[in-house]
Amino acid sequence: MTIEISKESRSDAVESIKRYIREDLEDNIGDLAANGLLDYFLRELGPIAYNKAAADVQERLQVKITDLNGEIFEDEFQFWRKHDRK
Known about the structure:
By secondary structure, this protein is mainly α. The chain has helices spanning 7-24, 31-44, 46-66, 68-72, 79-85. The protein is rod-shaped, with a radius of gyration of 26 Å.
């Protein structure tokens, strides 16, 4: 699976990579190298984040589904019970 990002996100990511290399590693790389590094990260490391996010969503949905009966259940024949309490 290839993780696709928008042109704007790619541009921002490339600039961020170049800045990181410049400021933290005290070196410089060009757009071509930064784009190549971004492609590598997306192919090699992207699936880790993607799979974790998918697992988190699945777990959260499972909790919601488990509690669905409590969320939407309505007791039946409540009219007279409420009426008699008055």
